[in-house]
């Protein structure tokens, strides 16, 4: 099954000049969605994760069913102020300004093996921040996984863990 057949391309979204890769059409097709989850599971199983972490918000959509597929727990990595209770934060630089990513204190234990999941790899900045955040907790970040990678943006170069992507786009 060619999963790219289930990705809708939306020009000029969210702003002019951007081509948006919409996964909602993949999610709506039960067989293609099941296939995608199974393929990601097969790819990351060798890293022997003890927990999956998903990046807000579409990373949640991918990581939660993947965690079920692998029989693992799921942890949310969110923007500042979105998680209840005590959190651990990491602030990182953007092209214009900064952003902050958080995880709930105690959600990932020291020494746990984590695979971080998101829907799309573009420039790699958010995933690099997620890796750094989990390492602050002394987690072993074994790999990261994506449905889609925009390889022309070279985000993979910012990541120092193995990268799995089901679909690559060169432009």
Task: Give the tags.
26% helix, globular, alpha/beta, 4 helices, Rossmann fold, single chain, 171 residues, seven-stranded mixed beta sheet, 37% strand, two-stranded antiparallel sheet
Task: Give a description of the structure.
The protein is α/β, with parallel strands linked by helices and 171 residues long. Helix content is 26%, strand content 37%. It has one domain: 3-Layer(aba) Sandwich (Rossmann fold), CATH 3.40.50. The chain is globular and about 40 Å long.
- Domain unit count: 1
The CATH class: Alpha Beta
Q: Helical content, roughly?
A: 25-40%
pLDDT < 50 runs, ≥5 residues: none
Q: How large is the count of helical segments?
A: 4
Q: Radius of gyration from the CA trace?
A: 15 Å
- Strand order of the main beta sheet, please? 5-6-4-3-7-8-9
In whole angstroms, the N-to-C terminal distance is: 22 Å
Q: Please, what is the average pLDDT? A: 97
Q: Which sequence of SSEs, written as H and E, runs from N to C?
A: EEHHEHEEEEHEE
- How many DSSP E strands? 9
Morphology call? globular
Structural class: alpha/beta
Quote the CATH topology.
Rossmann fold
**Second-tier CATH architecture:** 3-Layer(aba) Sandwich
Largest sheet: 7 strands, mixed
Strand content: 35-45%
